[in-house]
Specification:
Blueprint: E1 29-33, H1 55-65, E2 69-73, H2 83-92, E3 96-100, H3 108-117, E4 119-125, H4 137-144, E5 150-154, H5 157-162, H6 164-168, E6 174-176, H7 191-201, E7 205-209, H8 212-215, H9 227-236, E8 241-243, H10 250-253, H11 262-273, H12 276-291
Parallel strand pairs: 1-2, 2-3, 3-4, 4-5, 5-6, 6-7, 7-8
């Protein structure tokens, strides 16, 4: 476990000052983090261009959440430019993995280089991405399948539901960002929710309990409407659930939501999990299985 310097430690782009009250297991992984640097040009049309957020900034957040491992995801801001994400991987080393954004023209050699650097998946962002299209689905899956990567998908529920038959035929696992992007009021009513549950049950998908502050309609501090949805995923497929902070919360920086307290997000996860074994599975065992971290 990390050594916490003080109960009042602060970190950029996160509300609050204290550490989580949850007992976080050794080897815990934050499976959804972005880094930003204005010296890297944003792709034309990018809708989120937050302030710089560095690996050093994120390490301060780890002191509050208790995590030791991290998955860096190339954000929509940079299109298919993965250099900043790969730089973060090099800076952190073996306790980090990466998710890239690619197109169908990428060379095998470049894919192999990213794999050796720690990349384990490709993201298709159909929500905010300006270089992504549903037409890429099968092409990207075919390119990453030989490496054993997964396809990380972010899409609005209506779009997700339309992709259902195609997702079931892919040669790779699918990881759904941000609760499947399903608002709590749509749970059990929208076909996208049924699709996510079906793919989880078949062992073809994973879901990240990330961005609860994004999908919540009740809002902070406890995002209480998210609790039933989180617990349903945990009951349905505990071996297929991950957690991510979504730091540095680019959409909150843009004013779309209130800035969440990440230490409290971890505390809420422990509340959703309701026991140490489930929390350990979500934070340690499942990231080991999906991203290839060494077993703790």
């Amino acid at each position: 476990m990390p050594t916490f310097k003080a109960e009042t430690v602060t970190a950029p782009f996160s509300a609050g000052k204290g550490r989580t009250s949850a007992t976080v297991p050794s080897g815990a992984c934050d499976c959804h983090v972005h880094v930003y640097d204005a010296s890297f040009p944003a792709v034309p049309g990018a809708r989120l261009t937050p302030p710089d957020a560095t690996v050093a900034d994120y390490r301060l957040l780890q002191e509050r959440t208790g995590t030791e491992r991290v998955v860096f995801v190339t954000p929509s801001t940079y299109g298919t430019d993965n250099r900043l994400m790969c730089r973060a991987l090099a800076e952190v080393g073996g306790s980090a993995r990466g998710i890239a954004v690619i197109d169908g023209e990428i060379r095998d050699r470049e894919l192999q280089t990213m794999h050796e650097a720690g990349v384990r998946g490709a993201r298709l962002n159909l929500s905010l991405g300006v270089v992504s299209s549903p037409d890429q689905l099968e092409t990207l899956a075919a390119r990453i399948a030989p490496l054993g990567w997964h396809l990380q998908l972010l899409a609005a529920p209506d779009v997700l539901a339309q992709l259902g038959d195609r997702l079931e035929q892919l040669p790779v696992d699918v990881v759904f960002d941000h609760f499947g992007r399903i608002a709590p009021s749509l749970a059990t009513r929208h076909p996208a929710h049924a699709l996510v549950l079906r793919l989880l049950a078949k062992g073809r998908a994973w879901v990240k309990l990330s961005g609860g502050y994004i999908v919540s309609e009740s809002g902070p501090p406890d995002y209480e409407d998210v609790i039933p949805l989180a617990r349903q995923y945990l009951r349905s497929a505990p071996q297929r659930v991950l957690w991510g902070s979504d730091w540095p919360h680019a959409s909150a920086s843009a004013g779309h939501q209130s800035m969440p307290d990440d230490a409290h997000q971890m505390t809420m996860l422990a509340h959703w999990a309701n026991d140490e074994a489930t929390l350990h599975r979500v934070l340690v065992d499942n990231p080991v299985a999906l991203y290839g971290f060494p077993k703790v």
